[in-house]
Design brief:
Strand order of the largest sheet: 4-3-2-1-5-8-10-11-12-13
Number of domains: 1
CATH superfamily: Glutaconate Coenzyme A-transferase
Number of helices: 5
Order of helices and strands: HEHEEEHEEEHEEEEEHE
Strand content: 25-35%
Distance between the termini: 27 Å
Largest sheet: 10 strands, mixed
Oligomer: single chain
Radius of gyration: 17 Å
CATH class: Alpha Beta
């Protein structure tokens, strides 16, 4: 299967950030999603960390890093004006109570029905041991679920599949998929290819995507 060069992870995160409206309460998952925080400075967006922090800032850099202030990836983050801290039970009350507008998560697999797998990768050979964390609660509790990931695995296999072969995190929850090569809407009719990496064609994206894609009539290059 042909390998295409696409957007770096930081720019996938930038594209996701453009999808988030001001005044939203947002939770960012592990991996590419954590990078979204670096593109939200100055905007009226409230980031929630399931460990019990509201209004987290960008990822911390430099020598003055407080290791008590961390995100879901255990990366040190910064405070912003209005940051508050609370018990993890209250945090999950917020998540399970449907008070998070948008959750951004990574995935090992996504299908056309909006099902996705993110907590266990059998290829790692850990015999059923994965990283559940709060992923199920975050996926089900959010009003909108966005997936940010590379389009294929390291060995070139599709991550957008007909049927999940990994254990599902949640079913029929994914609203939109952002990859290094495309932006895809998940609708009742299937997957709508809305944006593609410059220089590629819809046929290129289809060649590395298992479900048949619906080509949007206004398809365009990925907008950064």
């Amino acid at each position: 299967m042909k390998k295409f060069e696409g957007l770096p992870r930081e720019i996938i995160a930038l594209r996701v950030s453009r999808e988030i409206k001001d005044n939203s309460y947002v939770n960012l998952g592990i991996g590419i999603p954590t990078l979204v925080s670096n593109w939200l400075e100055g905007r009226d967006i409230i980031l929630q960390s399931e460990i019990g922090m509201l209004k987290t800032g960008p990822i911390a850099e430099g020598e003055f890093i407080d290791q008590d202030l961390i995100n879901a990836s255990c990366q040190a983050v910064t405070e912003v004006p209005g940051s508050v801290y609370f018990d993890i039970c209250e945090s999950f009350g917020m998540i399970r109570g449907g008070h998070v507008d948008i959750t951004v998560m990574g995935a090992f697999q996504v299908n056309a029905a909006g099902d996705f797998a993110s907590w266990y990768n059998p290829s790692r050979g850990l015999e059923g041991v994965g990283n559940v964390g709060g992923s199920m609660d975050l996926a089900v509790g959010a009003k909108i679920l966005l997936i940010a990931m590379e389009h294929v695995t390291n060995d070139g296999k599709p991550k957008i599949v007909r049927e999940l072969t990994y254990p599902a995190t949640a079913k029929k929850k994914v609203s939109k998929i952002f990859t290094d090569l495309a932006v895809i809407d998940v609708v009742p009719e299937g997957l709508v290819l809305k944006e593609i990496y410059p220089g590629l064609t819809p046929e290129d994206i289809q060649s590395i995507t298992e479900p048949v894609l619906i080509i949007a009539p206004d398809i365009k290059e990925i907008e950064i």
